[in-house]
Amino acid sequence: MFRLIATILAFVFLSQLTYAEVDSGRYEISELGQAYWLPAWLSKNIFYDFKNRLIEVKTKQAEKIKNLNPNQCASAYQRLYKKSDIRWSIFFGYGDGDGKNHTTDFAERDVVEKEIRSTCPEDNPEIQFCGFTAEGNAGEYVRQVLTKQNRLINIHIRLFNASVTSEIEKNMADSSQKRKSIYLEKAYIDALKTDDIVFYAGHARYGSGPGFRPLVRKTKDWWVAALFRPMIYDVVSALNPGINNSSKEYPESVAVNPGTNPSVIGMFSCEAEAHYGLGLANNSESGLILTRQSVDYADNLRLLYASANALLKQECEEEFSLSMRSAITKIYYRKDNQPPQDYEKQMPKLFNFFHQDKVKNKNDILLYFQTKDEKVLDITNQNQAQVPN
Description:
- The protein is α/β, with parallel strands linked by helices.
- About 35% of the residues lie in helices and about 15% in strands.
- The chain has one domain.
- The strands form 3 sheets. An 8-stranded mixed beta sheet has the order 4-5-6-3-7-8-9-11, sandwiched between helices. A two-stranded antiparallel sheet has the order 1-2.
């Protein structure tokens, strides 16, 4: 009852907000030849400077990284890459939060697609999210990777984005958008049952689950997502079919069959740990890459890139954390608080991969009231990218 009342209140408040009119940008042609809207904040070369930053940070910390638990992650990657063919799906949710005219998921997918199709630099093994070649259907790619056990395996990546076009008005009038949204929801749930790595980048929808459809305020879909959160419960049920999910609450942790879950689930969306962490951790044995604060669009893309690159490079815990922390340039904090001094608690984290660690329990409904009108602190020039002690 409390969840229902709090959800109604939160979405009543939310209904009073308007979209930010930040639709400046230009049309571009995607890697697959489709026209889409590229927002002004997103350069097609967004990862160029970030790759240089990763290389610079890792070079400065090379000796320290090398001397920290060099054998710690061998078993983790042995579990992840135990098969000769690894299936990896990356989903970009319906990106309707940047403005009122255009979605962002076409652009986000395209800049990632550009990177994985690019040639890997011969002189710097730091960069590994590259070198994939097309296979099968559009958006499907493959490359070989040498594991830490000196085995050659094939990594198969599939890319999905939720918009039919990048024009919101056209999508709302086109019945194919509804069909694509339903298809993406099913494809995401199926991937959680079959794939080894599953990434989602997009809106958290205030905890209602990965969002693959436009949610116009006060429509049926909007209220269903707000009150019943069907996607997140489908996610939990897909990971752990044995649970009794009729209560529509996160169940207590129950036995999970080893090897039936993805080895890694990445949730690149605002407050992913608080929204989804408990349900994912209680009902899977997956490693969980979770954001721990609100997240800027560009930071979110860099975080996805850093995490993917780290998995392909098979980085150990300290270096993996360094990669993810390098992606974050903005820290968000409540308007009634002082800027945080300890950034570590707000940095994204990979749970339950290198060793067993716990996801904190936080009420994701009250989170709306805690993050409303947050303030932001730019930490670009501050030394946040240090190897943890």
